[in-house]
Amino acid sequence: MGVELAGRVAVVTGGSGGLGRYIVERLVAEGCMVVAADVEPGALAATEEDPAVAFVRCDVRVAADLERLVAFAVDRLGGLDLLVNNAGGVSRGKQWPSASALEWRATMELNLLGPMLTTQLALEPMRARGGGAVVNIASSAGVEWTPYSSPEYGAAKAGLVRFTTCVGDLPGVRVNCIVPGWIGLARAHEELAAMGPAERTAAPPFVEPAAIAETVVWLLRSDSMSGCVVEMPGGSERRFLGTGNEER
């Protein structure tokens, strides 16, 4: 049956909108108390106050914000059991090599260094509660071999995949990773609609956000898995990278 999630304390970075909001809602449905960390309240501001969800303003690129986030879970909710490193994204400005080092470094910090530090800060509180679980949200941009318009984003997500597999033997804390393809969020639908007919036909199928949230829950529950990377390409079944394609 795996780990019972009801009553657990979960932190979801990037949790106030987009994919993060789906993950927050799915964890609440499991009976978790959820801390949604983000730079703005986003969709949370438009919902009725829910005692199972707390919003904490947090920029994962700022160490002090992450320390305050973990302290909030411990001090206000009694501890930390689950962490979903979901915050990430591609800069809408210049990309490497046109961007300055400061600009492209911010993308690396958001997508790789932030999750690494958040995980590091969560280890002690999780072990104090008897153990915990982390799920990192990477991207197909980090595992493909074709050119990509944002090298810093692709490199950061590739690093997040490898970070996950490097720490698969952490005592007391399981760390796994999801590698989704093109996620069917509002922005993606807008991008698809703006394409020409030929480009639209060649575009890959969307991955449903709800399916990713379901896989997050599955990994958090699965007490026998750590250091695993689950790929979710659009239009295909989820599969493990590096360990064969069999479903576990």
Describe this structure in words.
- This protein has an eight-stranded mixed β-sheet, with helices on both faces.
- It has seven helices and eight strands; from the N terminus they run E-H-E-E-H-E-H-E-H-E-H-H-H-E-E.
- It has a single domain (9-230), classed as 3-Layer(aba) Sandwich (Rossmann fold).
- The chain is an alpha/beta fold.
TL;DR?
By secondary structure, this protein is α/β, with parallel strands linked by helices. It has helices at about 20-30, 65-75, 100-130, 150-165, 185-195, 195-200, 210-220, and strands at about 10-15, 35-40, 55, 80-85, 130-135, 175-180, 230, 240.
List the keywords.
248 residues; alpha/beta; Rossmann fold; eight-stranded mixed beta sheet; 8 strands; disordered C terminus
CATH architecture: 3-Layer(aba) Sandwich
According to DSSP, the number of beta strands is 8
Shape: globular
Count of helical regions: 7
Give Rg in angstroms. Answer: 17 Å
C-alpha end-to-end distance:
13 Å
Helix percent reads: 25-40%
**What proportion strand?**
15-25%
What count of structural domains? Answer: 1
What is the H-and-E element order? Answer: EHEEHEHEHEHHHEE
Main sheet attributes: strand count, strand direction, barrel closure: 8 strands, mixed
